[in-house]
Amino acid sequence: MTVIKLCEAGVPVDLFSLVPVKRSHSVCAQGGINASVNTKGEGDSPRVHLEETVYGGDFLANQPPVKGMADAAPGIVFMLDRMGVPFNRTPEGLLDFRRFGGTLFHRTAFAGATTGQQLLYALDEQVRRYETMGVEDERGVVIPGAKMVRKLEWWDFLGIVRDDTSGRCVGIVAQDLKSMEIKSFAGDAVALATGGPGIVFGRSTNSVINTGTATSAVYQQGACYANGECIQVHPTAIPGADKLRLISESARGEGGRVWVPKDPKERRKGKDVPEKERDYFLEAKYPGYGNLVPRDIASRELFLKCFHEKRGVFNGTSGKNENEVYLDVTHLPQEMLRKKLAGILEIYEKFVGEDPYHNPMKVFPAVHYSMGGLWVDFERASNGSLVPGSARNQATNIEGLYAAGECEYQYHGANRLGANSLLSCIYGGLECGPAMVTYRKGLATSSFDVSKRTFEQAEKRERDSYERILKMDGKENPYKLHEELAEMMLVNCTIERHNPILDKVLAKIEEVSERAKDIGVTDTATGRMNQGAQFVRHLNNMIVLARVIAQGARNRDESRGAHFKPEFPKRDDENWLRTTLAFHKDGGGAPATINYVRQFDYAIGSKPIHVTDEVDISLVTPRARKYETAGAASAAATGELPKEAARATEGRAS
Amino acid sequence: MSERQVRLKVLRQDGTDSPQSKRWEEFVVAWQPQMNVISALMEVRKNPVTASGQKTTPVVWESVCLEEVCGSCTMVINGKVRQSCTAMIDAIAPNGETITLEPMKKFPLVRDLVVDRSRMFEALKRVKAWIQLDGSHELGPGPRQSQENQEEAYPLSRCMTCGCCLEACPQINDRSTFIGAAAISQVRLFNLHPSGKMHAAERLDEIMTEGGIEDCGKAQNCAAVCPKEIPLVDSIADVGRQATKRMLFGWLLK
Prior knowledge:
The complex is a heterodimer of chains A (654) and B (254).
Chain A: H1 2-8, E1 13-17, E2 33-34, H2 46-56, H3 63-82, E3 97-99, E4 106-109, H4 115-131, E5 134-136, E6 142-147, E7 149-153, E8 155-162, E9 169-176, E10 182-186, E11 190-192, H5 213-220, E12 225-226, E13 231-238, E14 245-246, H6 250-253, E15 257-261, E16 278-279, H7 281-285, H8 295-308, E17 314-315, E18 320-321, E19 325-328, H9 334-340, H10 342-352, E20 361-370, E21 373-374, E22 401-403, H11 421-441, H12 452-470, H13 478-492, H14 499-515, H15 531-555, H16 573-576, E23 581-585, E24 593-597, E25 599-604, E26 607-612, H17 643-653
Chain B: E1 5-12, E2 23-30, H1 37-46, E3 74-77, E4 80-83, H2 89-92, E5 98-102, E6 109-111, E7 114-115, H3 118-126, H4 147-157, H5 164-168, H6 181-192, H7 200-207, H8 221-225, H9 232-253
Parallel strand pairs in B: 1-5
Antiparallel strand pairs in B: 1-2, 3-4, 3-5, 6-7
Helix pairs in contact in B: 4-6, 6-7, 6-9, 7-9
């Protein structure tokens, strides 16, 4: 989206992508995109969307950007519709909306159950169109050969280039993964839209490319990382040997129900267990929101059932209760399932080999999304939203470096609501593009006028570091080492966090970090695709992020959203209603450490900006977070409950 | 621990510039539940040693989502083109049979199982597979569309540009410039959309040039191998009809 905004402003863009853009991780987003269009006459509005997002995130998000996002959402969905996204329709030909977690309203527009794929394709198509369009200079003269977008796919981001004197980001260094050539590129401003770090946890719902390598690289170059400890675990994924495949929240949004047999030794197949012998534990405990409680809560409940109470689905062959619960859509009309959920049901069928139209699916929580990420700024307008086009919006603390999407921290606080991620990444791009245009206009000298030496030095730095990897002939296998790190993070730094165990995790990270120096690179090929050497770099960057995640979790002695510490079960606004701000501190030869700050200063142009860890709560006053009662998530919406939701709630409570 | 093993036989080559490096290598890894070809390859890279005990480099392959929505991991498995993430070991080698893995042959080889599918993205440029948006600023809701229209468009829009249809097509070869089923189906998709329709003629004019729809040999392999079961044969027939109409009556509009 950033690229499109830049092109519309007449700014040509070099677009780098680790994989062909059309294969990026956004294809995995399934359920939909939120926008309070209120086509069902339920009284939904952007105000309610703002409140529910902030409440769902347990008040850790700065509220002006969330307001900006909620206000822009209907326009964003209309824009995507105009771009040709095949959204599902109502009989009248309007966009259809479905329910999602943390709300009682039908707010989620969707294209079957592959919405992310469809949205990504639409944006990719618009960018492809710009790949064919010529560039005009200031006088309107076409520059021969130049195109608005130059796409460089299969390039790995290695780092930014910083101007020696100003410290400004003036370009990037990247590596062509087909030839392994390392090159620098100048740019007046740089935006990262590089996604989350899920692979730090090994198997997750994330794509294998989501190592967080780019964010880690710029963090090590001085960018601030915020709320790293806030990692979302999605309640419903299919266990697998290589990946935990997501079964979208939309399955529950369309009426799917989560249950376990009341008898922990139940041996019958799920479909043969009679209704009265099933424990619909989410509906029982949370009559207000039922199966659609936010993800952090649902994941904790599933974990409690399986891990602590040992009441997961019994497996006759293994003779034990597995870490699995039923997610059941078999009671829903087949025709509806086919039109609205085929994408995910097909995944279940292909990977599990069982027909989910007739058998309850077996699922368990999996690491899914990082609320934390690069710290980015915003400029608050008097109406509580953002100042349009301010150079501060989406700006990191490194001048000239911007970020949008899951790689930054801004919109979700301590827990993201379902179907807000597609929205936040597009909204982030809508803000990021214009901010970069404003920033560029204010530049006294273009990055293209910066001395060649600056770029050559940056290139040399990265080339040397890659050469060092190619020469590594130690005894550690990088993939095995990653597995060890990931296992530790997955077991001990996700749904439940205990300080004594986190200390062990941190010690393990140091151990892995040390052992990573003794890696034997598995592939020494030069001049052609070398995934073995590339992975060593990604692993090193993952170790750095693992430290940021685990140390952040260790420090935050409270429970808020997805961050849950049984020793500190309550939210502690007095001490912890603040953003975790982490800076990298290189140890020289010694292990790197993290410098946590309460405030810092940065500048755009000559304008100094003071930043603190205080959260902007000017629009929705923090209050206790409870999902037992219907409508609790939004004060603006109470009193006028949507009829259907109210009926569903009554049905469940009885 | 399970004794079961998974046997892979992989066709490897360092690149098109290195025909001498072309070779078959066999690997044996321990079986795990829910295993697919990708997780078997992941085991290989943790210990890149062939079945005969030779140290080698880890096999190079392309993968991203591992749930058959990104289209990355297409390869030829036991002679059939498909995604390797959905190639479940228990289904393709229930009795421990050797599984052969080869790169697709209709695209330039990069290394081992990785090929360069740029031509497919170039084809999307050629047929203008996009809506000519006035701009991303707010212009209100898009055109209303019937549920039927959405239900026809959505399956076409799930094309992952994975390459199966080109790999299986006899018309795609060194002597032909045929664009392939994927791009033709995108012409149908965009000509179906209420605003995309306004530029249908441009797409049709392009698809009627050399290497366009005329080159389809109607072997129908494309639809048979499409992992998303996109009705590619219908798409080709539909665009063919549109093109014929355009050819017969298009001059009236000029």
